[in-house]
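Morning run. Coffee first, then this:
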Amino acid sequence: MDTRRTDLREAIERLYELSMLDQTGSSEFEQLDHFIQQRLLDTYTESADPALRAVA
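And here it is:
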């Protein structure tokens, strides 16, 4: 598994853990949330159909 996928998986697991601990207001949560959102945008906006992006 490549490093980017491993980093993303660890970030998602930690974000979930923070959610379960009710620490959604922490700076760590916000940083992880931003990191994950950016990775999703990077992944899906490059290959997504422009019409589909307009709907989302």
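The helical segments are 3-20, 27-47, 50-55. Good start to the day.
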